[in-house]
Structure formats: C-alpha cells, structure tokens
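Morning F.,

Quick status update on the modeling queue. The single chain you submitted on Monday has been processed. Sequence for confirmation:
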Amino acid sequence: MKRTVGFFAVALAVAGCSGHELKTLPVRTALDAGQPRHAIEEVNRALGVDSDKELPKDLGGDRALLVLDRATIQQSLTQYKLSQLDFQASDKAIDMLDLAHNAGDSIGEYVFSASATRYVAPPYEKLLINTLNMLNYLESADLSGAKVEARRMSVMQRYVKDELKEPHNAIVGLGSYLAGFVYEKSGDADEALRYYEDALAYAPFASLAETLAGLMPRSSYKSARLEKAAAHAEPAEGGGDVLCVVGYGRVPHKIPKRIPIGLALTLVSGDIHPNNARKANQLAAQGLVTWVNYPSLAPDQGSYAIPTCTVDGKAVAMEQAVDVSSEVLAEWHKIEGKIILSAITRLIARFAVGQGIQQAGGKDNPLAFLASLGAQATLTALDTPDTRSWETLPARVAVGRVRVAPGRHTVVAAARNVTRTQPVEVNAGGWSVVSLQALR
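Structure tokens below.
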C-alpha cells in the first residue's frame, strides 16, 4: 500500500508542475538570449504552422494566446503587417475576464481551466491588444487603420471604467496618448485633445506641452488639466514631429505555486466557511495531499532598464508611459485571495469524491481505501492551475517626442542591449513614428 500511495504522490507532483509555462519556456529562453527570430520559430512550432504568415485553423485553447505572443514578437522584428494580422485574429478569439459579475464561478474557471478551453484575458491584456496594434499602423503611416484601433480601444476603455469599475487602470494612459497623436495628425484637434486629456490623468507627459499649446487655440474643447499642461509653453513652429515609443523587458508570467494547506487556510481565514476549513484539515490529516496548488506570478524581467532614443545623435527625453508589470501585479493581488479560496474549495470537492468511493466499497475494505486515495490523487492531477498569460508583453513602455526640421533624419532607439536604427523622412507639418520592443 505504501508503494501505491507513493506512486500517487509522485504522479501528483509531476502533474502539478506541468502547464502552459512549460510549453512556452523555449520562447522565453530565446527572448532572454536576444533571439526573437528563434522565439517566433518556437511559437510557430507550438501552433503547428510552418510560417509567420500562417494562422492555425482553430484558435481555441491556448492557440489564440500563442498568436498574441507572436504578434508582439513580430512587432519587435518590425514585421508590422504580420503583427497586425496576429493582433486582429487573437482579439476576435479572446474574451475578457469579468470578475465584477459572478466572481466565484469566474475565478474557478479562470485559474483551473483545461488547456482545451478558450483563453480569457484580464482587462489590461485586452486594452493592450488595440493599443499595440495602433502602434503597428502608426509605424506603417496608416492613420485610417490607426483610427479604427483607437475606436476599438475606446470601447474597451469605457467598458473597463464603467462596467468593471476600474477607472484608474494606467494602461489607458498609453493608449490615449497614441490615440491623441493619431487624431492630431488626422487634423481632428477636438478629438486629439480629449484623448490627450485622458492620457494626462495617468502621467504628466511633459512632451505634450508644445503640442497642446498649438492645438488648444484651434479647438473649442477646454479643460483645466489641458491648460495646466500647456502653461508657459509656446507652439512649435515649422518642421515635423518624431514620436519614439520603446517597450522593454517582459511582464511577470504565470507559474504554478504550491503552499501547505495550513498556510492557505491562514491566508483565507476571514473568508472561508468553517465547515470547509474543517474538511480541508481532514484532508491534510490523511497525509497524501498536504498542499494547495494554484497559479502565481514569476518576477518580471528588465523593468528597470533605461530606454534611450536619439535623433541625428541628439538625445530625446523619454517619459514612462506605463509600468505594465505594476498593472499585472495589481490585478493579480486583487484576486489572489479568491484564487487560493477557489483552490481549497476544489480540494474539498476531491475529498468528497474520495470519501464517497471509500464508503461505497466498505469502511474497512483496503481496496476501497486505495481506490479513494487514487481518485483523489487523479482528480488533483487533472486539476492543474491555468498558467496561461500574455508572456511577451513589455514590462514598461516609454515615449519621447521631438520637433525636427523638414528632411531626412536618423532615429536610434535602444533598451536592454537591443538597438534599432531607422532613417526617416519628415516633411514640413509631417510626422514619423519609430518604435522598439526589446523583449529580453
């Protein structure tokens, strides 16, 4: 019997450690080594496709998420058209997690989903799909496409603010900054100022002062925040604009975490029903399962790098637009207690199944006892935490904006030992956007 119990324990330990994070380990390893081309090849292998242009026929399970990972890496390789296609495909296939309604059931499904189920994204991921795809269109000088993404992003922003009750989600700041730029360059001063005002609610963006000073006299849209941001600034005359956007590092990805039942019960002592706590302690007393397995977050990577951008060798002041890692952690901390509680509840359900099998076979029947232990171990092994997440998101994003004389210029963006050198042609009144995704 000891050998049987040991077998179940080993099987449980192996199953508890497997998950999406192991499937994507080769992708992260390639990015860590500064090899985004190899990272895409690993994604394509996981998707079962032969090229960067190919999408899987079925975007169920974690395939839509893998396409989303590929979209960011495509962007880092300046494959903007392919990145657009990946973002659009994944956007349609991925729903957003809504914990504001029916939170208990949502948590259970969110953290213990089978790999075959449709991936459900937290709000910050859905917001960033349209935001980063807007950047693809700006790189391609396609203002029409960028406006479509801006409108989609605005719908998602309103939903997050009004329905999910998250008015302070800092991801909105970056999206609104880019959308403001899109509408400014489209000649719509009113809409540009609305977006810029929204962006200023999340960061000071000193680079907007001259822009606002030039836009506000042409618009009937006024606000105290805009006036304060433009105070003492003079409109820039002549030339055109270069906008530099640098993403760097990578956000925390999900990993399976195991903690003792006793510690788990302490962490949720104020929320768990006493009857459930008693049952969990009974399960621990069996000696087979003494831990709770649930998803957690690994550390982020490279978030404290210093991004730079130069135009013709002159430094452009870079401002942090958003700390994505902080948003990931904040979102997780809001639900971590509920996640642990959900894990305990499911543990108790396995205990009940095992007890039922033993009672059906007879209290003193050793085979029934083994069947009970086997059922509990098997159910636990199958109940692997869902460690899926958008792993190729930059940890932080910085922006810089500068006025340049008409003509040809050289823009150099750098972060995390990744450098992009891009010649640009800026006409009088024109503009150019140069981005870098240093995902290492």
